[in-house]
Structure to design on (230 residues):
């Protein structure tokens, strides 16, 4: 007669979401790594100030190319979510939402949603950097939303450094991935301190980050939640 085993005192290892942070150049890593089904990207591409050696025109072309390569890389059941803040460069407004949409159009990707995330309370006057970020979700295949979500997020949440994604913004992205897509793995090819990775893990999703800075890789490997506020 079969005997049932007593409950294990240890949690199942399979229940613990994994986190891998790779110290590498993102686009080379994407070229050499095939995504498994159920992989989506949540990322924030570097600003011109992070790669000044390219110059503004070089950075702009690089940005569109990088977004295109991410959209090409995701599997058919995946989506790519970009979190980008507009800047003023030498007096001219640079709309990074437009740059992401340019890339999506060039790749014939579909716009799933476009949200605005407030980095400062509405009405705040600032010079140089926008007080909001674009959060844009695109995919090569149709992902019609099953449930409505907010178009405007009033508070991006805790940011671990000035170029970080806010924790609340990452939560919004991961909740969408969990509720509306087949995503099991979240990849951030420009992971910085790993906010998206830590939030993905808190949702039970596996996470992979890629980052050029060895110091930020170390932070990303160890970042834990909660970081906040709620
Ligand atoms: C906008 S920040 C991302 C911040 C991140 N979302 C966070 O919450 O900390 C962009 C990151 O990309 C990294 N980076 C820049 N160029 C890169 C490249 N070619 N490959 C990988 N990482 C790169 C920078 O070091 C920086 O940490």
């Amino acid at each position: 007669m079969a005997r049932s085993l007593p409950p294990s005192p240890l949690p199942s290892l399979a229940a613990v979401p994994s986190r891998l942070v790779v110290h590498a150049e993102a686009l080379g890593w994407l070229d050499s790594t095939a995504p498994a089904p159920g992989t989506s990207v949540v990322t924030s591409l570097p600003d011109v100030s992070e790669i000044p050696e390219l110059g503004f025109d070089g950075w702009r072309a690089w940005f569109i190319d990088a977004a295109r390569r991410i959209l090409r890389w995701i599997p058919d059941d995946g989506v790519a979510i970009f979190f980008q803040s507009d800047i003023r460069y030498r007096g001219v407004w640079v709309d990074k939402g437009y740059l992401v949409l340019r890339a999506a159009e060039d790749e014939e990707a579909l716009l799933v949603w476009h949200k605005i995330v407030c980095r400062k309370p509405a009405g705040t006057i600032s010079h140089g950097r926008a007080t909001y970020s674009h959060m844009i979700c695109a995919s090569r295949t149709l992902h019609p939303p099953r449930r409505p979500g907010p178009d405007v997020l009033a508070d991006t949440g805790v940011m671990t450094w000035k170029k970080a994604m806010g924790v609340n913004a990452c939560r919004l992205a991961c909740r969408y991935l969990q509720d509306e897509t087949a995503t099991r793995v979240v990849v951030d090819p420009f992971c910085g301190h790993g906010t998206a990775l830590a939030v993905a893990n808190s949702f039970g999703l596996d996470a992979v980050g890629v980052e050029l800075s060895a110091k930020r890789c170390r932070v990303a490997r160890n970042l834990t939640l909660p970081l906040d506020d709620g």
